[in-house]
Write a structure and sequence with these properties.
2 helices; Jelly Rolls
C-alpha cells in the first residue's frame, strides 16, 4: 500500500440513533400490508439461494438487488421516507437517500449471521416480514449505557452484552451502517423471514448566511 498515513483506534461513548418503523396499508400502493408480506415470502421461497452461505449470513439469501419487485420496493420506499423525514424535520441537512442493495432472507433453525457491518452504507435496516416470539434477535454487541427503551430490546444480566433487538412481524429497524451486528443461531421452529437493505445519501447543509459587504477599489 502506497498511502502514507497513521491509524489510531480510539473508543468513545457516543449516542447512536435507531429508528423503528412499521408498514401501514397507506404505504402499500393499494396492495395492503398482508399481501406485501405474502408476496415477499413467495418471492424469497421461489428465488435460488444466491449466496450459498459464503457471506456473513448463514441462511438463504436472494440476489442483492430485489427492487425490481414491487413489494420489496414498497418497504425500501418506507425506509427512505423515514430517514429523509427525520433529517428534513429535525436538522438543517437536505438529505436525499438512495437504496444501494435490498435482499430477502429466510432463517431456518440453526441459521445465523456472523459479526459484521455494512460499510460504506450510511444506514442499514432490517424489516421483519414474518417472525414469532422465538425468533433470533438482532444483536449489537457494543455495551449500552443507561436504560434501554421500553419494548425495544434487552440485554443479559452482565449489562455488557450490548443490545438484543427483538423482532416483531411488520416492524423494521434502521441503524448506522458502520455499527457492527450479528444474529445468534435461530432456535425457533418457525422460520425467520426478513428483508434487509443499505442506504446511501447525498445533500447539503442549509447554513445561515450573513450578507457580505464588499469595498470597491478603484485602481
Amino acid at each position: 500500500m502506497d498511502s502514507d498515513f497513521k491509524q489510531y483506534k480510539l473508543y468513545f461513548e457516543c449516542i447512536l440513533e435507531f429508528w423503528e418503523f412499521s408498514l401501514r396499508d397507506e404505504d402499500c400502493e393499494g396492495i395492503g400490508v398482508d399481501n406485501v408480506h405474502r408476496e415477499i415470502e413467495k418471492i424469497i421461497r421461489e428465488s435460488p439461494d444466491a449466496r450459498n452461505g459464503v457471506t456473513n449470513v448463514k441462511a438463504k439469501m436472494t440476489k442483492w438487488n430485489m427492487l425490481d419487485h414491487i413489494p420489496f420496493k414498497i418497504i425500501s420506499n418506507k425506509v427512505q421516507k423515514t430517514i429523509e423525514d427525520f433529517y428534513h424535520e429535525y436538522t438543517d441537512i437536505d438529505l436525499e437517500t438512495f437504496m444501494t442493495t435490498c435482499w430477502g432472507s429466510i432463517y431456518k433453525k440453526g441459521n445465523y449471521s456472523e459479526l459484521h457491518s455494512h460499510v460504506p452504507a450510511l444506514y442499514s435496516w432490517v424489516y421483519y416480514v414474518d417472525v414469532d416470539e422465538d425468533a433470533a434477535p438482532l444483536h449489537f454487541p457494543r455495551k449500552v449505557l443507561g436504560k434501554l427503551p421500553v419494548d425495544f430490546g434487552s440485554r443479559d444480566e452482565s449489562h455488557d452484552s450490548g443490545l438484543y433487538y427483538k423482532p416483531k412481524s411488520g416492524t423494521g429497524v434502521i441503524f448506522p451502517g458502520w455499527f457492527e451486528h450479528q444474529v445468534p443461531p435461530h432456535t425457533g421452529d418457525k422460520e425467520r423471514i426478513i428483508v434487509v437493505g443499505n442506504v446511501e445519501g447525498s445533500g447539503c447543509v442549509d447554513y445561515p448566511q450573513k450578507q457580505r459587504k464588499f469595498t470597491i477599489v478603484q485602481g
